[in-house]
Amino acid sequence: xxxxxxxxxxxxxxAQALEWLGEGRRVALATVTRTWGSAPRRAGSHMAIxxxxxxxxxxxxxxxxxxxxxxxxxxxxxxxxxxLEFGVTNEMAWEVGLACGGKxxxxxxxxxxEPDER
Length: 118
Description:
Number of helices: 3
Distance between the termini: 19 Å
Shape: globular
Radius of gyration: 14 Å
Structural class: alpha+beta
Strand order of the largest sheet: 3-2-1-5-4
Largest sheet: 5 strands, antiparallel
Number of strands: 5
């Protein structure tokens, strides 16, 4: 994510992530990269998560957010991006509540503020 971009007016989730970074908080961004079948959110939907578990946005309408937040916290600590996949054939999907009949593939990445190049 380009943290030097100022065009976040159209995306409140990214604007919130930038605000949190400006406050010195550590942030991860979870993005839906693919869906199959009946999925609650489309590809491109995203959620910003802080190192304290605060979040903005949604990647599933609520059914897998808890698991995504836990992964985001690990990504923030390690600095290493991760991919996640939830679906009805995945036991974890049932545990976290994704029983809608579809699959959701996500990419979770740390958001790092780059120094101002001016």
